[in-house]
C-alpha cells in the first residue's frame, strides 16, 4: 500500500460544542477522491475516530477501495474520545453513556449533515467501532432504528450488560452487522476485568440472530490490537459499501 495516490487524502478537522456532554468534541472528516458537494454520499461513523484514522488507516484504505476497486465514494466521520472517560461513554453501565448517545444522535449527526452532502437513509449510514466502540455502536443503532441499520464491530466488548440489553429486544430484523473477533482474544484484560472476547462475540451473535438481525460473523487468528483490525477494515467496508 505504498502507492502515493492512496496517501493524497482530504481530512478536515471539525469541533462541536456538546450540550449533552458539557464540552467540545473533535471530529475528523474524510472526503473521497473527486468529492463534489452537489453529489450525495454514504457515510461511515467511527467511534475512537483518531485511532481509526491513525492506526486503522481507514482513509488510506478508503482511497484504495475507491480508486482501485471501483467502490462508490463515501465519507468517513471519526468521532474522537478522551480515553480517560472512554468506558464511561461507550459501556452501557458507564455514567456518560446516555449523554454520549444523545450527543452522537442529536448533535454530531445534525452538525455533520448540515455541512456535508451525506445521505440520510438508515441504510446509507454505517456505524463502526473496535472493542467498546463496537458495543456503543450496537446500542446507538438499537436505540435509533430510524437512523442506523448497519454496524461494523471489530472485537466488540459485549459484556453482560450489553447482552442483557440485546435480550430485552424482541425485533432486531432491521440490523445488519459485520462482526469479527480474533481467536487469541480469549483472555484479554481491560480496565473492568479479564474477558473471553471470543465467547462474548459468539454469544452476542446468537442473541442478535435470534431476534432477526443479519450477521456476517468471522473468527480469525488475531489479537485485540489495531494490527489485527487494520487488515480487516477493507473487507468490513466492502461488505456494506460494494
TrEMBL record:
Domain of life: Bacteria
InterPro entries: AB_hydrolase_fold, Esterase-like, Mycobacterial_A85_antigen
Pfam families: Esterase
Coiled-coil regions listed: none
The protein, known as: Esterase family protein
Organism lineage: Bacteria, Bacillati, Bacillota, Bacilli, Bacillales
